[in-house]
Specification:
The complex is a heterodimer of chains A (208) and B (100). Chain A is an all-alpha fold and 208 residues long. Chain A has six helices and no strands. In chain A, helix 3 runs antiparallel to helix 4, helix 3 runs antiparallel to helix 6 and helix 4 packs antiparallel against helix 5. In chain B, helix 1 packs antiparallel against helix 2. Chain B has one domain. Classes of the chains: A mainly alpha (208), B mainly alpha (100).
Amino acid sequence: MNQSELAVVGAHGTVMEASPFGIEKKKLGMWIFIISDACTFGSFLFAYGYMRVGAPVWGAPFELSSIVNGIVMTAVLLSSSLTMLTAVRAAQTGAKASANRWLGATMLLGAIFAALHLREWIKLIGEGWRLFSNPTGGATQFGACFFSITGLHLTHVVTGVIALAFIARGYNQGRYDESHVETAGLYWHFVDLVWMFVFPLMYLMNAK
Amino acid sequence: MSSNRELSTSSYVGIGVGLMAIVGIEVILTYQHLPVQTLLVCLLCLACLEAFVAVMYLMHVKYEQPLLFWTVFPATLFVLGFLCYVFPDAFRMFSMRLAQ
């Protein structure tokens, strides 16, 4: 879409100024959301980083099996980004059925990621890790950091899966167009991007 | 918008494989038993590299107008950098005591 196509005709026929960034307003809105969310995750991760380095004794709960689980989760989320890209591309070419299939694949991979994550949580809780307790006797902040940061990310994943379901349904019914799929894709890639920081900092930094 | 200049599907798969390779490097570094500070810096640098690739290619910023990039990213990086810079001040709390 070029600049002139982006110019909006107002209610009285006045041509309004085109978007300065050459993108649609919903996509610009998503970028603003992403920036604010990046700052939220950034503040959480900085706080964790300082505590992790500052604590003299820090429990390291993750065995190799948990790290392997984390690698699989990373691969699943990265694959979901690729399926999302394919869905956006299919939507842009007007291939509705293909776009819906790839959106379905993205949602499935998102659900698998959430299930793997919950399995890890259940395992940790079974070992005695809680928000404010450390069964190894180290710093109690690990539980608070891990469950809050990964919980926030998991909330984003689950919200993304639900949002994609709504977008896919609306796109299928003709209520939404390819720009909605593209904007949802932007959010999904951001969720993937955040995991690229959460996995090394929360899992790898706490490997036994 | 971006569509006409986008990469091919095989290029995207290559980017995905490249990102997984960086994750592999992170895992190898983890088991080198480096000091915590060194490991944190190494992992953060690699994560930033991954994030840059994801933003440019998966989120298509490379194919948007440069104005979007120059408006969004320097400001965001400044905020995050400043947050990192002022955060140690929070540790003053531990040495502060209320007046008797």
